[in-house]
Automatic annotation (TrEMBL):
Protein name: Zinc metallopeptidase
Superkingdom to which the source organism belongs: Bacteria
Keyword Transmembrane helix: yes
Pfam families the record matches: Zn_peptidase_2 (PF04298)
Amino acid sequence: MYIIYFAIILLLPIYAQMKVKSTYKKYSKVRSTSGMTGAEVARRILDENGLYDVKVVESSGFLSDHYNPMTKIVALSSHNFHEATVAGAAIAAHEVGHAIQHKEAYSFLTLRHKLVPVANISSNASWIFIMIGIFATSTNMLLLGIILLAMGVVFQIVTLPVEFNASSRAMNQMVSLGVIRNEEERHAKKVLSAAALTYVAAAAVAVLELLRLVLIYTGMSRDE
C-alpha cells in the first residue's frame, strides 16, 4: 500500500514536469501563422481588454512566465517573448488571462491572493508540529500540524480553477483575435493542458499526503 502511495507522490510530479517540457519543446518549434511573438500576443490581448497599464517584460529563466498583480506586469521568458510560436502565444495568452482575472476580480483569484500569506506560513510550520507529533506520539501536536497543512492544501485546490479559467480565457482570446487558426487551436490546447497538469499533480500529491497524515492521526488516537 505504502509502495503504491510513494510511487504516486514521487512519479506523478515527475511525469507532469516531463509532459510540460516535452510538449513545450515540440510546439515552441512550430511557428504561428499570425507571425506574432509572445510579447505581441500579450500586448494585443491586454489592449483589447483595456489593460493599457499592464506592462509586458522579458524575464530570465526557462518557462519563468508569470503575471504579477502587485506590479501589473506580465513577464515572459526570453524565447516566448521574442519568438512567434504556438507555444509562446499560448503561454503569453494564459498569463494575460490572469491579468484579466485580476481586472474582473475573479473570485478564485481573489481568494488565492488572500490565502498566499496564510499558506506560506502554515505549510512551512506544519511539518515541525507533524514531526514532533509523530516522534513524540503526541496526537495534539500532530493534529495542529495537520490543520496547518490543510490550509496549504486548500491553496493548492483553489489554484486549480484559477489556472483552468486563465487557460480558457487564453483560448477564447487567441481564437477571437485570430492569433491562432485551425490546427493551431489543438496545438495550443495541448500546451495549456500540459501546463495545467503540473497544478493538478501538485494538488493531488498534497491531498494524498494530507489523507495519509489523517490516517496516522486516527491510528494514534485509537491506540491512546
